[in-house]
Amino acid sequence: FGRSERFPSPRSSVQLICTGHNHAPQVRQQWFGWSAFSASEIAAMEQLCTSHRQLLIDGGFADVRSEAGYTACAVFLTNIDKAAQTLSVDIAPRGYRSQFSANYRALFPDTARHYRVDVLEASIDQHSAIWVNGEKFELSAEAVNHA
Question: Is the pLDDT reported for residue 105 higher than 60?
Fold first, then answer.
């Protein structure tokens, strides 16, 4: 199995890997075979776990409305990207972005990962618009579903 096939989903993977009990390192090594991971890969996952624990949760979702919640979420999204890069996780196809408006493409200029708190917030709230630098960007249903 490749690394991308090892974990069922991003959310459940982080929750499984970032367990809070005292024997978490041994359990993670047994369940996920961390002996096959390099020190930098383990460090990236540990950083991801740390930022996951620091998320502010409100009603079952990450709080992105308060300044502290927004910052914690931004750090977590950055660490998701760093962990994915460190673990050489394949980037999902993002060809659909070429069909978006010029304004939306300005937010996501290429096929790289661009995790954004404002887009996550829009998808959580099921809103189809976000504001960037005072300018309103309408998200398509497809964009919200991909967020």
Answer: yes
